[in-house]
Specification:
Layout (H helix, E strand, L loop, with lengths): L12 H17 L2 H18 L8 H17 L1
Helix pairs in contact: 1-2, 2-3
């Protein structure tokens, strides 16, 4: 599974940060779902930070809200 990490464009901030946080969160939280949720939350945030707001699919914004609610109810 780790061999797929070489295909991530690590030089692109808006892709690398959500990927890194997803990879790190999964083993630290003992939950694949939480890791994926963190990735779905930080992808739109980093895209907005880079000024690429219009490139984010509306489905990603829906998932952003769903996963924020999901993580809110876990704790």
């Amino acid at each position: 599974m780790v061999s797929a990490l070489k295909d991530i464009p690590w030089d692109k901030f808006e892709v690398a940060v959500p990927a890194f946080l997803t990879i790190v969160t999964m083993p630290l939280s003992y939950s694949i779902a939480t890791g994926i949720a963190v990735g779905f939350i930080f992808y739109p945030i980093t895209m907005v930070a880079k000024g690429r707001f219009k490139e984010v699919n509306p489905v990603m914004w829906v998932l952003f809200v769903i996963f924020i609610v999901y993580l809110g109810f876990i704790h």
